[in-house]
Structure formats: C-alpha cells, structure tokens
Amino acid sequence: MPKSPAALQTLPPAVTQALARLGENLAIARIRRHESQRAWAKRLGVSVPTLIRLERGDAGVGVGIYATALWLIGRAAALPELAAPSEDLGALESDVRQALRRRAVRSPLSTEARLGRKQPQKS
Length: 123
Prior knowledge:
- The protein has seven helices and no strands.
- By secondary structure, it is mainly alpha-helical.
- The termini are far apart.
C-alpha cells in the first residue's frame, strides 16, 4: 500500500468533516437511484473499494473521481462556483484593504479637486 502524503495526514477538521458529508451525500444519491456499488463504480470507472473510500469521504480519492460522481448526479455545474472569485472573501478583504491604502486622501480640497468639483466660497 502506498504511503499517503503528509498533506492528507494534516487536514483541518473542517475539511475532513466536509469530505465525510460529501461522501455520505454521494452514497445517499447512489442509493436513491437504486444503483449497486458495483454498477456505480463501473460508471465512475473505479473499483468498488475506491467507491467505498469515496463514500466515506477519503481525501486520498482523486478530485476527478469526486467530480465525476457529482456529474453522475447532475451537480458538476456547481464545481466552478466553489472557488468563484466573487465568493473569495479573503481576497475581497485584501482588495478593500489595498484600495483604502491607495486612497489616502489628505484633505477635503484634494478630494474635491479629484472629483472636479469647485469648493464653495467662504464669505
């Protein structure tokens, strides 16, 4: 049996739980479709033991196999949205911080000048 990579041994608990839920949901989808493990594994192009690992949420199962399982249940279109830039809150926060640093306005006059407005005259 091949040695598993260190990255798989140090998965965050949230990732482990999410994979377990994904595997469980895929198993439920297979059962609801009245498909045997053998038939489902054949459709995925994997062995029955690999299917069992997938349904347990094993992180060592290739992402392509998970993606194919999602395709079999009509959910492959949801994959790109998992890492959609518009949903990447960490990057959005970074963008906002950078914009605030670039913005460094020093006086109301410079703001008005940038906007092309005239300052009201004081009497």
